[in-house]
Write a structure and sequence with these properties.
two-stranded antiparallel ribbon, 276 residues
């Protein structure tokens, strides 16, 4: 009886030893090698994991930077960390950081309670995405802000707040890191990440209404009516679907004030300085 117990114990111990050896060699064979450069780069990143860089998260971005050559690295950028973080990473790689213009999110709509008074009462789920599917909006503008604040809810950096008086989201440019979360969540595409001009200003059309002028003005007094007065000031400005668009290439310092004054409805916003 004792011999049987001893044999069983030896068999069990032997089996455990063989299994342990197999697991050891398998773990060595398939071990994921740690990229020391990627680890050092990750330590420089803000760890926001917002995806604004186009990668799955900060770890994925760090791995992409670690494996990039100088040309590939020039196309990588962390909007949250900005130029300071990219300079640190470039130093680790032995590269020169590429200068990129500062960017900020802008809301391309002025459909507040004064400019676009409510014509109907929306009494359903408080979600812009749902409201967009079932309603043209309280003002009747099919392209304007729905005033339900999905964008505010997804902003991780406190850069968006909801102004109860105007019924509109407000961008705090001092906190905005251009992560693009508001751009992705808005069902009407009202947010845009725009670069500042070299002087620090910005000029853009704060409207997305594609209705013809008279109809658009009935829904919002600040709507773009596609009159093309702004387009006469720059060949870069285009009018499509009754709506003007001022590309970032238009120098805000040179034309911003003139464009704002030329707009008969006040749809063009010009800011001399966004930050600083």
């Amino acid at each position: 009886m004792n011999d049987l117990i001893i044999v069983n114990m030896l068999l069990l111990g032997g089996t455990a030893l063989v299994a342990a050896l197999i697991l050891y060699f398998v773990s060595k064979k398939f071990a994921v090698r740690r990229d020391e450069m990627a680890i050092r780069i990750a330590e420089c990143l803000p760890q926001a994991n917002c995806g604004a860089c186009g990668k799955a998260g900060c770890a994925d971005f760090a791995a992409a930077c670690a494996g990039a050559d100088e040309n590939e690295f020039a196309n990588l950028y962390c909007p949250v960390g900005g130029a300071a973080v990219m300079q640190k990473i470039a130093s680790l790689k032995g590269f020169a950081a590429t200068d990129k213009p500062s960017t900020v999110a802008v809301l391309r709509c002025q459909g507040n309670c004064r400019n676009a008074p409510a014509k109907i009462i929306y009494d359903a789920v408080s979600s812009c995405r749902i409201a967009h599917r079932i309603s043209s909006g309280q003002s009747g503008c099919p392209d304007g802000c729905l005033h339900l604040g999905d964008c505010v809810k997804v902003c991780k950096f406190g850069a968006l707040s909801f102004d109860e008086k105007s019924g509109m989201p407000v961008v705090d440019t001092s906190k905005c890191v251009s992560c693009g979360a508001c751009v992705k969540i808005c069902p009407r595409g009202l947010f845009e990440i725009r670069p500042q001009s070299p002087a620090g200003g910005m000029v853009y059309v704060a409207c997305r209404n594609k209705q013809k002028g008279a109809v658009a003005r009935k829904n919002c007094s600040a709507a773009c009516i596609g009159c093309a007065k702004c387009a006469k000031l720059s060949d870069l400005i285009r009018i499509e679907d009754n709506l003007s668009y001022i590309p970032p290439a238009v120098d805000a310092g040179e034309l911003g004030s003139a464009l704002q004054q030329a707009c008969p409805t006040g749809a063009i916003i010009y800011k001399e300085r966004i930050r600083g």
